[in-house]
Amino acid sequence: MRLIYYWCLLICLPTLAQATTVSETIYINRDSMETVLGEKFPYTAFNLSPSFEQRNALIELSVGDSLDLWVVNNDSISHQFAIKGTAIVPQNISAGDSVRVQALFATMGLFIYYDNLNYPENVYMGLAGGIYVKESNHAHFYWNIKEHQASWNTALANQGVVNWATYTPDYFTINGNSNPAINLDPTARITGQVGDTLLLSMVNTGQSIHSMHFHGYHVQIRYSSKFPHHVGRSKDTVPIYPMETLLLEIVPDKEGEYPVHDHNLVAVTANDIYPNGMFSTILITP
Question: Which residues are in coiled coils (predicted)?
Fold first, then answer.
């Protein structure tokens, strides 16, 4: 057990006066992902309990909050813990061991925490999630976007070698789910009323670029880890690069139900079956 202290401090005194310490524990758990078609393949995730779930935990903070985080390695092999875009140095976690990470987040943002050991293999196998640092209490939704090549999971779980130049994923998920299960996830399906301000955090923990297309409404970019100069742009299609993040704002001007999907239609399939991939709908009431 080790204690690691990092204080990512920026000047933000009015906010810090109301800040709190958010204590969380996440567990590295290994089991299997079950696809929308019932196929299973080896998978690993950061979960909020010692029980395996195929979705990684979202850590949510307010601007100025301090994070007091324990990371417990329930796996039989060593892993690392890192937070992209921060000063936190990656830390090794031996099998059965844990580390404590303490950090202050003084500005709004969206970060990816992940295992960077043997990158990108451990991230590909599932170990990556999001940290959302909010500056408002608007309704918030969250997408952890990922793609999978099932045979590779089996190969990597058995210490095999893969050639990333031939990567051809066959399953595509949001928060570990594919259509139609995405709409059953209240943290993923965007719902609200006309005139509401709705926020969507997107983290791409896969190895491919995904271009998400919104029917019915434009979205405004509030935060972009890769292209900060894009903040303020209003679009109906937004690309998100591997290991990058976007915070989008939607203010619906009409009621209705409208699709949202990856513009690459291969990513809207599951093992070539359409539309069992990255597909959801926005549901807006009067």
Answer: none
User: Using an 8 Å Cβ cutoff, are 132 and 201 in contact?
Assistant: yes
Neighbours of 214 (CB within 10 A): 20
- Which residues, 6+ apart, have CB-to-CB distance to 119 below 8 Å? none
What is the 3 state secondary structure string of 71-127? EEECCCCCEEEEECCCCCCCEEECCCCEEEEEEECCCCEEEEEECCCCCCHHHHCCC
The dihedral sign for the CA sequence 129, 123, 149, 226: positive
Upstream peptide bond of 169 is cis (omega within 30 degrees of 0): no
The per-residue pLDDT string of the chain (286 residues; one tens digit each, 9 = 90 and over) reads 555 444 444 333 344 446 799 999 999 999 999 999 999 999 999 999 999 999 999 999 999 999 999 999 999 999 999 999 999 999 999 999 999 999 999 999 999 999 999 999 999 999 999 999 999 999 999 999 999 999 999 999 999 999 999 999 999 999 999 999 999 999 999 999 999 999 999 999 999 999 999 999 999 999 999 999 999 999 999 999 999 999 999 999 999 999 999 999 999 999 999 999 999 999 999 9
38 vs 218: CA distance, rounded Å = 35
Q: How far is CA 28 from CA 159, 244, 255, in A?
A: 18, 22, 41
- Quick check: helix, strand or coil at residue 194? coil
Return the structure tokens found at 226.
């890769």
Identify whether the C-beta of residue 148 lies closer than 8 Å to the C-beta of residue 128: no
Q: How far apart are CA 95 and CA 76, in angstroms?
A: 5
- Residue type for position 140: H
pTM here is: 0.93
CA-to-CA distance for 50 and 141, rounded, in angstroms? 24
